[in-house]
């Protein structure tokens, strides 16, 4: 997962990581911990929610979640 790109898209969207965590129903500490671990522990359901909250295009989602 490309966490740097995800962080950039979150900033571009004008919201915070904390707001994303709240919107997907996750504790902000858990969200930060998952980001620190390079996103490897996000579930598919969580990824889908993130895509909708930010929002991300299909291409952006693939680049963020399915590249090393």
TrEMBL record:
GO terms for molecular function: DNA binding. It comes from the Bacteria. InterPro entries: Lambda_DNA-bd_dom_sf (IPR010982). This is Phage repressor protein.
